[in-house]
Amino acid sequence: MNFSMRRVNALLKKEIKDFIKNINVWVMCFLPIMFSIINSKLLPSNSTNPLMNKANILILCVGMNIALISSMVISMLIAEEKEKNTLRTLMLSSVSPWEFLAGKVLITFLVSEIVNIVIFLFIGCDIQYLGKYIFITTLVLFSMIEIGSIIGILSPNQMTTGVFSIPVIMIFFVIPMFAGANKIMKIIADFLPNYNMNIMIVRIFKGESFGSESTYNIAIILVWIIIAALVFGLVYKKRGLDE
């Protein structure tokens, strides 16, 4: 089956219309932005290391956007389609898993990327770090959106996406937060894409370059992207988009 940009474009147009109408999704997207504004106002003005304070707040807010919002938004959008019973036609048509994934997640990816940049600017980070920051967060966004797409296909409706998303929240958001306090959590976190993203963000704010020390971190993120894509393709074919 050939990859068709025309089918992807048709799916994308449909997604944009659905995204604009979904108030729940918009509220979720604004949460990390609001959180970044509140926390940036609480930054101590007399801090001995203001750069690292900003880095820590940035990591927390981006973690919220990537681990909680990005994955949950796409899962909710897919589950919403299942509730409407409009996805069976896609399964019976010539739309491939990759055309569906590209058309369905592009709008979520763009919005998540914009939110990440807005968070960066609201916290008041130096613009010189923006390029590397976008590169790192973009890679992790791919993996988390793929995971969210898997949740959306497995969920029969929007309500159950919240239940299915709890393990994602626990693994990808909570574990990195407590990695420094527990040896077991640190071991698990070392294999998570967003934790490796956090490590590289700290290096950026320290003025360090992406050298050999970042090879492992980038490799972990790329492995997650590949594995999540393969799992999505398998679930798409085996489970289907409608119950």
Name its key features.
mainly alpha; 10 helices; globular
Structural class: mainly alpha
Shape assignment: globular
Q: State the major sheet.
A: none
Number of helices: 10
Low-confidence stretches: none
Would you write up a description of this structure?
The structure is a single chain. With 243 residues, the protein is mainly alpha-helical. 79% of the residues lie in helices and 0% in strands. The chain has helices at residues 5-21, 23-41, 50-84, 88-92, 97-123, 130-154, 158-177, 183-189, 193-205, 215-239. Helix 3 packs antiparallel against helix 5, helix 5 (97-123) crosses helix 6 (130-154) and helix 6 crosses helix 7 (158-177). It starts with a helix and ends with a helix. The relative contact order is 0.14. The model has no long low-confidence stretch (mean pLDDT 81).
Summarize the model shown.
By secondary structure, this protein is an all-alpha fold. About 80% of the residues lie in helices and about 0% in strands.
Any chance you could write out the topology, listing elements then pairs?
Blueprint: H1 5-21, H2 23-41, H3 50-84, H4 88-92, H5 97-123, H6 130-154, H7 158-177, H8 183-189, H9 193-205, H10 215-239
